[in-house]
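Quick illustration for those who missed Monday's session on complexes.
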Amino acid sequence: MSSGAATIRRAAVTDPTHRTESASQSRIRTVGAGKRYGDFQVFRDVDLEVGAREVVALVGPSGCGKTTLLRCIDGLLPISDGEILIEGARVTEPRAGVAMVFQHFGLFPWKTVFDNVAYGLRLAGAAKADIAEKVPHFINMVGLKGFEKVYPYQMSGGMQQRCGLARALAVEPKVLLMDEPFAAVDAQTREILQLELLSIWEMRPTTMLFVTHSIEEAVLMGDRVVVLKGRPSTVHEVIEVDLPHPRTRETLTLPRFAELREIVWNTLKDEARQAEFELEKGR
Ligand SMILES: Nc1ncnc2c1ncn2[C@@H]1O[C@H](COP(=O)(O)OP(=O)(O)OP(=O)(O)O)[C@@H](O)[C@H]1O
Ligand SMILES: [Mg+2]
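Prediction with adenosine-5'-triphosphate bound:
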């Protein structure tokens, strides 16, 4: 058996930890989480833990419930079974300290970059002086200095994505949830944003759970890759990403990176082929 294959830990549905750390250290914890829309069961028995300084990538075929799970963790949607806890407290509604970056930027079109980035801080009742200090700091961090007064329609997709990221970072979240954060930007911008986010994370590590369809992105950024699969879906595989930190462009060239990419690909390829087959049939 290759050393790569040995790092796969099959996720036991009966074992809610998936980790060696004690439960008290986990910032996000889902226990037997299930979600139904009417009679349609999207996912079931999802047991997952994400530690305080951990980045977890959530992958799985289209429609398996990744966005739904993220929305449940954010408190935007109620779960049907089990429970979701953030720092030990049950999630029943959106809460301070948890920020979400949406796939399609989710910016307010009528607000400038400054006001979009300030949104979460104002919502949290931050003082004017605090906003005046923090907002430019985060705008600068994502490379949008000079664009404070610009509106979303005046920016490229990559700039809008940076703005969405700055808005989420500005509240200095304990938990950062991201739904395919870079899916809508071109390949070069995506790589730049991935590396920038990694360096921001190194400066201020936090709990990050992100959804992606990119296997490279999952392996580059994740400490673990969680594979959601099946109908209804559940955690099918948890792959430890034993690549060194800090993750940089060099990480992409490591032989271990290629091995891990193959491991994740192998867990997903049957379902990806099945999805293609079903699309073909439907034509
Ligand atoms: N409000 C809703 N009412 C009923 N069904 C829904 C609703 N939202 C999502 N679904 C269904 O739940 C399933 C999971 O949707 P979800 O958006 O979570 O998938 P996903 O894994 O994020 O997919 P993708 O990778 O395409 O973004 C899909 O079958 C979808 O049709
Ligand atoms: Mg989705």
